[in-house]
Amino acid sequence: MKQWYEALFENYARKYDKEPFVQGTVGECDFIEQEINRDKSLKIIDIGCGTGRHAIELTKRGYNVTGVDLSENQIKRAMEKAQEAGVAIDFQTQDARNLPFDGKFDLAIMLCEGGFSLMETDEMNFEILKNATKSLNNKGKFIFTALNGLFPLFHSVSEFYKSAQIEGQSQCKECSFDLMAFRDHNTAVFEDDSGNKRELKCNERYYVPSEITWLLKSLGYKKIDIFGAKLGAFSRGDKLTTEDFEMLVVGEK
């Protein structure tokens, strides 16, 4: 049986690109450029690249990017968009829990919950971190976002979803947060690219900063920085607080 994150992206590429949470690409790529000192000789892997928004923007700026995603439909759309933008990018359908790369990249990015935290077990989520790390060379850097586990301790996740809803976009209902597992269970209501109304039972894992730090330390990262992740405005000046729904993580080997 397909997992919810497989079913969701089967026919949802064009609608996905209109969602409010994917509109921060330019500002997010500005941050990535800063983090690598605008060194265009570096090789970048975009894990859970979706329809390729970060990969395309970075390639337009002169970087060498490989994009991978579990969804064939998202990758197909990413290829179309790259062609429309006049850029050549190596997009591949790959499972982030089992990547074929070994020390090939200088930077791995995994933004907007690109696979990580969507998996049904903590072990699978850890496999994603492990495989991203394996893809990096021994001086590699890893930039990713994760759902901030401090947020649900102080706020209602279902209230947050309600306040973020926009008419005509996907919605979350029947939301409940499991404090023992730090998982949010909800029903996603959305319209696919063919105009069909669909409902999927989803669950995502939130992480607290100390967990992320420990996981990355166990993978050999020497320096780990965690910030608040503001849509389209990533910054090292943003201290992570209980108000941030997402955290931004930068790990250096």
Q: Could you explain the architecture of this structure?
A:
The protein has 253 residues and is an alpha/beta fold. Helices cover 30% and strands 28% of the residues. It has nine helices and ten strands. The chain has helices at residues 4-8, 13-16, 25-35, 53-60, 72-85, 122-134, 151-154, 157-164, 209-218; strands at 43-47, 64-69, 90-93, 105-110, 136-147, 171-178, 183-191, 197-205, 223-228, 246-252. The protein has a seven-stranded mixed β-sheet with strand order 3-2-1-4-5-10-9, with helices on both faces. It has a three-stranded antiparallel β-sheet with strand order 6-7-8. The longest helix is centred in the first third of the chain and has 14 residues, at 72-85. The relative contact order is 0.15. The model has no long low-confidence stretch (mean pLDDT 91).
Annotation keywords:
3-stranded antiparallel beta sheet; alpha/beta; 7-stranded mixed beta sheet
Structure summarized in a few sentences:
The chain has 253 residues and is α/β, with parallel strands linked by helices. The chain contains nine helices and ten strands.
Q: Which structural class do the helices and strands define?
A: alpha/beta
> Please, what is the average pLDDT?
91
Q: How much helicity do the residues have?
A: 25-40%
Low-confidence stretches: none
Radius of gyration, in angstroms, nearest whole number: 17 Å
Q: Count up the helices.
A: 9
**Global shape:** globular
Tell me the fraction of residues in β-strands, as a range. 25-35%
- Give the biggest beta sheet: 7 strands, mixed
Order of adjacent strands in the largest pleated sheet: 3-2-1-4-5-10-9
End-to-end separation? 37 Å
- Listing every helix as H and every strand as E from the N terminus to the C terminus, the arrangement reads HHHEHEHEEHEHHEEEHEE
Number of strands: 10
